[in-house]
Structure formats: C-alpha cells, structure tokens
Write a structure and sequence with these properties.
single chain, alpha/beta, six-stranded mixed sheet, 15 strands
Length: 546
C-alpha cells in the first residue's frame, strides 16, 4: 500500500505530495492538467523503465520518493527514492541503500497494479488469458502447471537425445572412421578422470625428493639431535621446575615449556616418518613426466581441458557403438521418449482438468461483475481448446481465450474483436475485481477506466470501485462525478503558470466547498449554484466511509 508519494520535477509537476487513503482515492481535473504525470511517477516508484524526457523542462533531474507498507514491513514501512537526471542516468534507493531497478520491481512492483491503456491491451492479448485464469485458480493450477512444465522439459530432452542418436546412426563412412581413430588414439593413452591433477600434485615432490629429504632430516637433527632443541628445552623445564618451590611463577613457565616440548617432539617424530616415506626415484620421476607429456598431448589435440578430451572420447565411442549395435541405442532412446510423452500427456490432462473445472466459475464471477456495471445480460466465457501436440508450450497443452457475449442467446466472440472502448474498460474492471480477490496485489491504480461511460453506468462503476476499495487500495484518475463522490480522498489536479512562464501542475487535497465546486464542474462544466446543489446532494448520499 502506498502511504505517501512525493514528486519533484516530473513532466509539469514541480513539487507535489499525495497521501492516498487505504481505500478509494480519486484524482480529477481539467483535460491536460497533468494527471498522467502523477501516474508516470507511480510507474517509476514500482520499478518501470525511466525516460529522460520525463524530467521537467529546465530541471537537472527528477525525483520520486515514496513510503509503502508491504507485507512483512514494520511500522516504518519501505522507503523508495528514485532519481533520473536529464541525461538519462538513474539512481534507486531502497530504505537508504542503493539498489537496482530490477530489485525495486521485484520488491515493490508486484504489490501495485497499473491498470491503464496497457492493461486494456493485455486483456485483448490472448496469451495473457491463461495467466489470468491460473492466477485466479491459485495454488492448484500452479502445482499442476509445474508438473506439466517438468514433464515437457523431460520430453524435449528425450526427443533431443533420440535425434542425436539417430544422427550418430546416420554417420558416413568418413565420419565413422574419424570417430574410430579418435577413440583408438585416446584409448591408447587411456586417461582417467582426476589423473592429471594427481600427477601434477605428485611431480614437485618426486622431482625435488632429495631436497625434501635433506630439509626434513636437517630439521629433525636440529630438534632431536645431540644438544638439539629438545635437550635444551628439557634442561630448561627441569631447572625451572626445581626453582618453582621458591616462586610458583617459575612453575607456570615450566609447564608452558613442557607443553611446547611435547609439540616439538611430535613434530620430530612426524619428520622422521616423512624422511622414511620420501624417496628420490629417478624412474618414478621419468614415469610421471612421460605420463604428463602424453596427457598434455591429448589436451593439445582434443582439449584444451582434460574434461574436453574425456567428452570427445565419449562422443566418439557413442558414434562407433551406434554404427555397430544394430540400432539398440536408437531403440532405447525411442522407448525413453515414448515413456516421457506418456507422462507428459498425463500431466497435460491433469492441467486441463483443473482449468476446465475452474473456467465456468471464473466466467460466472466476471459476468456477475459485468451485470453490476450495467452491461445487461452480456457475459464472459472462457474457451479451452486442446492444441495439436506440436503446438504445446510452457503454459500448457491448450489454448485459453476469453470470449465476450454481448447478450444472452448471442454467440460469444473473442474479446479482441470487441469494438467499444467502453465495453473493454468495463470488462477489464470486472476481471480486476474478480482477480483482485485472489491475487497478492495491494494497490490498484486505474487510468481511463471510465472511458465512454456515463449515466447509470457511471453510478454502477462507482459502486464497483467502492467495493473493490474494501479489499484493496484503489487510486483512480477519473472524469466522472459519480466516481469522485465515492472516494475517501479527493485530489484536484490543476495546471498553472509557474516560474519563468513554464506551466506547473499542482495537486491539492480538497474537501468541503472546494470539493463541492470540483464535483459541480465535473457534472456540468460550471460551478453555478444549481450544479453545486446537485454536487452537495451526491456527496451527502455517498456510501459511508470505511
């Protein structure tokens, strides 16, 4: 939920603040007053792309700052600050820390839904209908869709494997000879995984065996030889121990030295074992060097890494095997694809079953909202048509499309063929009301939702928005007085002459007679007494506030 929004130098807005209610907030004003600038600011707040052209003329940059209360937020909420300079460079801050636009969109974008002309286009795009149906169904659809997606991916991998095996089986004589040669060449040396690393680790120890033995022997002699460190420490421990009866502090140091003596004796013993293990063997050195040279030769030819050599051997082995196994590899790959296709068909049936069961319920719910919007017996139908196997995609095996029925008894047609913008707006709103009850979106911002609407339909539209505001924060840019009077908060958007003659858009929360005057203007275009009286009646008769 948006708690407060502060806008500076966005389009015609120089400096403005809005504190929308938790229910229904409306913005009204003359055409061209700059209402869209506020919507642009909300888009920036939720992580949509910026444009340097949004910066107010003459300003070095724009800034949008907002406080939102998201799920899980504490009493301070989440503070977002976004700046865009006139040269297009941007900066995002979340709770005082730098962030990316992507992080902003992930954290805030899913909680605010901008329902403008773009939303109309989304409703008319058939590919979005399956997403809307699944969103309304919820977890049940998400679970079966995930199972279907996994099954589809497994089937695609199996099909790719079968094609690869068939390609190997079709190997020409020249390609088969090449694979056989590669396999013989690599098998002659027979590298194993991890061998190169083992030899590279052994080589320095074998190569410098004499120096290592000399170092270990010399160090051990210094520690445990005649007059070595161990003898000196033993004498020191004994001397301090004898004197400790006169001063306990000497006894403490004696114990410390005695502990060190034990550690040194352990090191000396380990050095003795090390000397016994290390052996300078010229033959072993030659064996390791020769083996490394052969492995490096393979990497130069088939590398650059040993992993590439091993992979090349495996591919060559498969080509040779495919050409000589009488089609066994292809048979097994075909059987695997058949099993995966059967599992996919089962998952597809389960997904369709969930959608087919829910589709009439979604259609009925949307149609019910359409009736409340004075659309008579018009309704929505949800068509689910199984596609040929070759057309199955990530969203499922069937085509889901919303169809519009102009009236009872008439044939339902695709939504995209509806001619009336007003009908599209009302169907979109009906869908939003129904889907809004199931989604996680907290704030809905509507622009142009009342296009082509008037009369009784305007009253119905206001009622639907008010009911939607009972469960969501709703912000509406409107030209309808019927919607304006239903709001808990009303902001007037005006355009005035600013400093230097540059037009400036202001936002003012209005109430009392100011609100009466604005509603009167919206009703009749003037603020005469008759219009004001009607405006007062409408405001007095509006639904009680939450």
């Amino acid at each position: 939920m948006i708690d407060e929004l502060h806008v500076r130098d966005v389009a015609l807005i120089h400096d403005a603040t809005i504190e929308p209610s938790s229910g229904l907030t409306v913005l009204t004003g003359e055409t061209g007053a700059g209402k869209t600038a506020l919507l642009s600011s909300v888009k920036l707040l939720v992580g949509e792309r910026s444009d340097a052209g949004m910066v107010r003329e003459g300003a070095p940059s724009l800034e949008v700052e907002g406080r939102l209360f998201l799920r899980g937020d504490g009493e301070d909420g989440t503070v977002v600050r976004r700046r865009v300079s006139a040269d297009g460079r941007g900066r995002v801050e979340l709770d005082g820390h730098m962030a990316s636009v992507r992080e902003l969109a992930e954290r805030v974008g899913s909680t605010v839904d901008l329902c403008g002309q773009h939303e109309h286009q989304r409703l008319l795009a058939v590919q979005s209908h399956v997403e809307m149906l699944d969103s309304w169904i919820g977890a049940a659809a998400a679970d079966v869709l995930a199972t279907y997606a996994d099954a589809l991916a497994a089937s695609e991998r199996a099909a790719s494997e079968l094609e690869r095996v068939r390609e190997m089986s079709r190997a020409t004589g020249e390609r088969l000879e090449e694979a056989a040669f590669v396999l013989r060449r690599i098998d002659e040396i027979d590298p194993r995984e991890g061998e190169l690393e083992e030899l590279e680790a052994q080589l320095p120890r074998v190569e410098h065996g004499e120096a290592l033995m000399a170092a270990a022997s010399g160090a051990r002699e210094l520690l445990s030889g005649d007059d070595g460190v161990c003898d000196a420490l033993s004498d020191a421990v004994r001397t301090l121990g004898d004197a400790a009866r006169f001063d306990p502090a000497l006894g403490t140091w004696a114990k410390t030295l005695e502990s060190s003596l034990i550690d040194i004796e352990d090191v000396s013993s380990e050095l003795r074992d090390y000397v016994d293990e290390v052996d300078f063997d010229p033959e072993e050195l030659e064996r390791i060097q020769t083996r490394l040279a052969r492995l490096e030769g393979l990497m130069r030819t088939y590398g650059p890494r040993m992993a590439d050599v091993l992979e090349r051997r495996e591919r060559a082995r498969e080509v040779v095997a495919a050409a000589s196994d009488g089609g066994e590899l292809e048979r097994r790959a075909a059987e695997e694809l058949e099993r995966r296709e059967a599992a996919l068909a089962k998952a597809a049936d389960a997904l369709d079953a969930v959608r087919v069961e829910a589709a009439p319920r979604l259609a009925a719910a949307v149609s019910g909202q359409m009736a409340l919007l004075e659309m008579g017996t018009a309704g929505l139908e949800v068509s689910i048509e199984r596609l040929p196997r070759a057309e199955w995609g990530r969203r499922g095996p069937s085509r889901v499309e919303f169809l519009y029925r102009p009236a009872a008894g008439l044939t339902a047609r695709p939504l995209r063929k509806i001619a009336s913008g007003g009908e599209v707006s009302r169907v979109m709103l009906a869908c939003k009301v129904v889907l809004g009850e199931a989604d996680l979106c907290e704030t809905l911002v509507f622009d142009e939702v009342d296009a082509g609407v008037g009369g009784a339909t305007a009253v119905a539209l206001a009622g639907v928005l008010a009911r939607l505001a009972a469960t969501h924060q709703v912000i509406v840019v409107t030209h309808l007085a019927q919607v304006a009077v239903a709001a808990e908060k009303h902001y007037l958007v005006e355009k005035r002459d600013g400093a230097g003659g540059v037009p400036e858009t202001t936002l003012t929360e209005i109430s009392g007679e100011q609100r009466v005057a604005e509603v009167a203007r919206m009703l009749s275009g003037d603020t005469g007494e008759a219009s004001r009286d009607l405006a007062r009646e409408m405001l007095a008769a509006r639904s009680p506030r939450r």
